[in-house]
């Protein structure tokens, strides 16, 4: 039985080593699209930072935006982006295989990796947030929260397969995405389960070393989410909040100091807020 599980884990680990974007690639595009609309709204109808080269007029519709970011020769023929259902739009992008790799610099010309891109776009949205609840900003926030969770889930699934390959049975913890329960690896509980032995800790360390860039990507997506979540002026009316507890975030993604211009501890960054927004609270 262990051989069978190990074989399955090996297949999954090899497949997951290819950075296939999948559904979270759809949510990332939704995040950038709403940021593009926000950019245009702030600058009198012409985007100057987010996908600024999308159209000479300065603002793209949804089809034009996806065509530009994905570098397509023609319009993908999508439905108009739903104003209040980012989940439907992201799923549609995924089903049409429009969620793969994309040109980061077409979204923001000065970004050279996903971590920087998530931070720059969220900093722009935060710096230009309206005083009242705005559907564009709220849709962007819900989109990046979805990216945070799905990238984290993918990272956890890959970790789970890696642990099984090394004869370690991971302890799992439940988390929620759109009110649907998911199981993620509980690293501390797994280490404790095996008596905090050096050999088990080394397995985790090897995985984190090998997946450093992927880990930074999901953590920076989560930092973008926490930034927009905690700076909202009033509760959202948009279903699908996937905001996580503060332990999901660390200080790694503030290394550029793009927003606060100083190095502060996590607790200070988020102003003491530790609420976990769950489905029952929507």
Give a topology summary.
Blueprint: H1 2-16, H2 23-42, H3 62-69, H4 86-95, H5 104-107, H6 114-127, H7 135-165, E1 172-177, E2 180-185, H8 187-193, H9 198-210, H10 212-230, H11 266-269
Antiparallel strand pairs: 1-2
Helix pairs in contact: 1-7, 2-4, 2-6, 2-7, 6-10, 7-10
Structural notes for this entry:
The protein is mainly alpha-helical and 282 residues long. The chain has one domain. The protein contains eleven helices and two strands. It has a two-stranded antiparallel ribbon. Helix 2 packs across helix 4 and helix 7 packs antiparallel against helix 10. The N terminus and C terminus are likely disordered.
Could you write a compact summary of the structure shown?
By secondary structure, the protein is mainly alpha-helical. The protein is 51% helix and 4% strand.
């Amino acid at each position: 039985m262990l051989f069978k599980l190990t074989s399955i884990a090996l297949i999954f680990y090899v497949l997951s080593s290819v950075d296939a974007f999948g559904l979270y690639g759809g949510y990332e595009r939704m995040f950038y699209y709403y940021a593009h609309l926000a950019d245009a709204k702030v600058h009198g109808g012409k985007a100057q930072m987010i996908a600024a080269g999308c159209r000479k007029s300065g603002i793209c519709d949804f089809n034009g935006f996806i065509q530009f970011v994905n570098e397509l020769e023609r319009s993908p023929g999508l439905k108009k982006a739903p104003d209040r259902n980012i989940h439907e739009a992201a799923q549609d992008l995924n089903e049409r295989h429009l969620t793969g790799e994309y040109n980061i610099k077409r979204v923001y010309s000065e970004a050279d990796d996903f971590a920087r891109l998530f931070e720059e776009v969220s900093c722009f949205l935060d710096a230009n947030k309206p005083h009242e609840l705005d559907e564009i900003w709220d849709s962007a926030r819900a989109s990046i929260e979805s990216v945070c969770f799905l990238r984290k889930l993918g990272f956890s699934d890959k970790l789970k397969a890696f642990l099984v390959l090394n004869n370690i049975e991971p302890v799992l913890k439940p988390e929620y995405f759109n009110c649907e329960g998911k199981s993620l690896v509980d690293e501390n509980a797994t280490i404790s389960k095996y008596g905090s032995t050096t050999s088990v800790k080394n397995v985790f360390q090897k995985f984190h070393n090998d997946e450093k860039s992927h880990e930074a990507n999901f953590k920076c997506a989560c930092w973008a989410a926490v930034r927009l979540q905690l700076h909202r002026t009033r509760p959202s009316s948009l279903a699908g909040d996937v905001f996580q507890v503060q332990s999901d975030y660390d200080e790694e993604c503030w290394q550029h100091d793009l927003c606060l211009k100083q190095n502060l501890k996590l607790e200070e960054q988020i102003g003491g807020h530790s609420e976990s927004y769950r489905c029952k609270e929507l």
